Amino acid sequence: MSRRRKAPQANAAPHPVVFRWDLDKTYLKSEFDSLRELVKIPFEKPEDKIAVPGVVPLIRNLRSVAATAGRDSWIYFISASPPQIAKAIKDKLTLDGVEYDGITFKNQLQHIVRGRFRNLREQVGYKLTELLRARPNFPPLAKEVLFGDDWESDPIIYSLYADILAGHIAHDDIRSILEIVGVDSRLITETESLAKAIPVIDAVERIYINLERRTPPDTFEQFGPRLVPAFNYFQTACCLFQDGYLNLAAVAEVAAHLTSNSGYTPVRLSNSLADIARRGHLQEVNTIAIAEYMYGRGLLPPPRRQAGERLALWERIRRWLRSRGKQMMEMPRAQPAPINYHNLIMERRQSR
Q1: Residue 146's closest CA among 230, 51, 214, 33?
Q2: Does the residue 98 lie in any domain?
Q3: What is the pLDDT of residues 240-260, one digit of tens each?
Q4: Which domain holds residue 167?
């Protein structure tokens, strides 16, 4: 195994962060499960496209909270849609008031014209090379938070990317893993070349998977605690608060958006909070802080405790939030166990 150079050591300032978003079914409720739907995409107008509930206020607040904390941040999108849709997508992002720093499209129509229909569905090679190709454009110490969905191969793609960056996958293993997936040999060679040129750094802090297909969360346990399956963006926002990328006001804005635009009730939001905490993605102190704050905003039902007890608890939480200050932005992460990608890919293939 050849060794790559180490990235420089971090300084005391908040590390810069790159938020990388899948576009289809993660930001937009895209429909391209058939050839007919795929061909229709370039002709859709910006106002015809629908954002996933809660995603717009979440992305807006990621940038504003980072700016308040004195942290440099970037937002990038990667899409499996064709470049012919670029103007409509960019116009949609403008309508939503979402600022971003870059967006990449896949030339799907070219595959259709050339009769390469298999490449329409192949995402691992495409996305992995795009992720690796863009990494050198970021500051060497930049951390990354990745957002995808459960429709394609985002959990595998993002986890592979994270482990390649961290030096957890030998260069010889990259080829064998991608061959099992069925990635085009040209893209495998390109992936190997890109991986060798990137300094080793454990850059990916978290991977969020939007459960658009309602896949059972325990399906993703093999990916470790770095990957968080979420049924809605309120759950995602709660975890981003825990990691220091959002504040409570931002979490409340996401919850309010789900209430006003998707029919969420306080009870349903409360159940979502309990679910993400029960699955081990949210610490108890953060769960309590979110519940109390959301109750104060009328977004969650009242906790089951006496009023005096609730006020005393909330005051302790407020003091705790104030005391952790900048430490909130640098919370330690659980280190994921090594992933056996060969077994994982074969098992997922058999289950399908």
Answers
A1: 230
A2: yes
A3: 999 999 999 999 999 999 999
A4: 17-351
